[in-house]
Specification:
There is one protein chain. The chain has about 150 residues and is mostly beta strands. Helix content is about 0%, strand content about 50%. Strands 2, 8, 11, 12, 13 and 15 form a six-stranded mixed β-sheet that branches. Strands 3, 4, 5, 6, 7 and 16 form a six-stranded antiparallel β-sheet that branches. A hairpin with a 7-residue loop joins β12 and β13. It is globular, with a radius of gyration of 16 Å. The protein starts with 5 loop residues before the first strand and ends with a strand.
Amino acid sequence: YQYPAAFLAEGEKAQGEPGNRVSVEFSTYKTGVFTYQPEAGLYLVEEYGEPYIDGDTGEQVGVTNLVVVQTACRNTGDRLGHITVDLDGEGTGYFACGGQAIEIAWSKDAPYGQLRYYDLGGSPLSFGVGRTYVVIVPLDCDISFS
């Protein structure tokens, strides 16, 4: 298994607009909030208005990179509320790292292919070294940055 990814060099900063607090409305009842903590270099994760706690460590989850993938999501109409998520082809979204956020493009060329992420100029994204949180949301999802 290989996943070619580019990473920021040590000491290199992510580029973009201010993205110290990113709010993503996952659904009508759940919003994820990612608040950048510069001293740790991490986005601390909250959901349902509370810190998102790692069950193994008991600590609030913190991530270096946040990727928001926007795509078509449809209810299947079954009694269990299942949805289909269209991840074939390409689309747009957002990337946040180091308190900076940019709009991105994503693509996946085969059903079992890998998601690939690019800036809007077509260059592959460079991730910060660390954990990455990928959020897949509907096209009409409310996303805000401050």
